[in-house]
Write the structure tokens for this entry.
Amino acid sequence: MNAVLNTPHPRTTAEWQAADSAHYLHPFTDFKGLASKGSRVITRADNIYLWDSEGKKILDAMSGLWCVNVGYGRQELIDAATRQLKELPFYNSFFQTATPPAIELAELLAEVTPPQFQHVFYSGSGSEGNDTVVRMVRRYWDVLGQPQRKVIISRKNAYHGSTMAGASLGGMSGMHEQGGLPIPDIVHIEQPFWFELGRDMSRDAFGLKAAGLLEAKILELGAERVAAFIGEPIQGAGGVIVPPDTYWPEIQRICDKYGILLVSDEVITGFGRTGQWFGCERMGSKPDLMTFAKGVTSGYIPLGGVMVGERIARVLIDQGGEFNHGYTYSGHPVACAVAIANIRLIQREGLVERVREDVGPYLAQRFAEFAEHPLVGEVQTCGLMGALQLVKDKASGATFDGALEVGMVCRGHCFGNGLIMRAVGDRMIIAPPLVITRAQIDEMAGLIRRCLDLTLADVKARGWM
Ligand code: PXG
């Protein structure tokens, strides 16, 4: 490890926290609540571990924020950024110009994405990518002479980002309440969350029923008004909700039947997370558009975009004229150079196959053991995504009163024991870097068990169970 990184930081934790609460408004944060407590300050990272300003080592089972797929400290990515910063730190792609990294990455993305994708439109993030989706879907139907096709159908408890379009596509009521969302012509159907909504039937039957809600909504609106359906192959921020196997093939069938565009939001599920390059390949759909971000650069530098299927690309290219949309950082050369290095690294190390054949199945095996734990009502994994549903009563699957925030109690123990695991309500979720080893999965599983036991003890001591 680099000796320089081990030198003490110039400020104490208390000093960092004071400056933080004096000036820094964090995303999705109760500002006052945080100021009274102080941030945890993360100062460095290597492989799957982080260190905070107190020198405490933490196993990062969330890959930063679902993004550091190749792990921290990868020299290839650092070198690619450094080289590109020296050669050409920025040029745009607006006025009939391009840069070599943006072109080369477009070529590489066409290679690693499903065959219907030969073109990319770059953005700076996943949210911006989904803004592009809304603009592009509506433009496609306008060019085809069907401007009344504006409605995009999404799902409750979906997460598609935090811009006006991203938050509108998303199905988080707390986000809609702040800001008069959704924007017009975005509607939501119920999510395919078997544990919460379908336990009175088989998973497969529930998958068909949940997909059937799409057809019902199309018929209610009139198919001639519906432009597209958007979904995450597996809901990430919503709680790692792996839909039944029947769900996505049925969604595909319905989209095909009514000629509606299918958009797969692959911001979390892209670049190997599920054991395929993209989640749609794992779930069995053939989308027309695919949003990506996060794992494209393993989070080392911001980049997002939309893969544009031939059905749409041909219309926009052959008949569309100018598309009045784009971002300063569309195709940022440094971000694209890092993405190229990242994708080459994923290919060279066979990380997608590794998730599919080795560490993904091993995580599933270790997670299955938690099904015996008194607090756990459901265990789900797919590739290197995992969820543990905490319940009050194992036999009936009854959940805790949400106000008790049992998930937050568990998350507190995770932080205390050097593990980053997220709580979405009472669903504990992980998505570790794809480079995690079997021994590190054992280490992570040991920490998770300890935290579940500590949470169980708390819950019993407080008389909640
Ligand atoms: N789509 C999906 C499926 C996402 O998960 C976005 C779009 C937006 O990407 P940007 O780059 O604009 O953030 C995301 C982001 C969480 C959490 O709490 C998840 C995300 C972001 C922040 C927090 O799990 N996903």
About this structure: The chain has two domains: 47-70+350-461, 75-348.
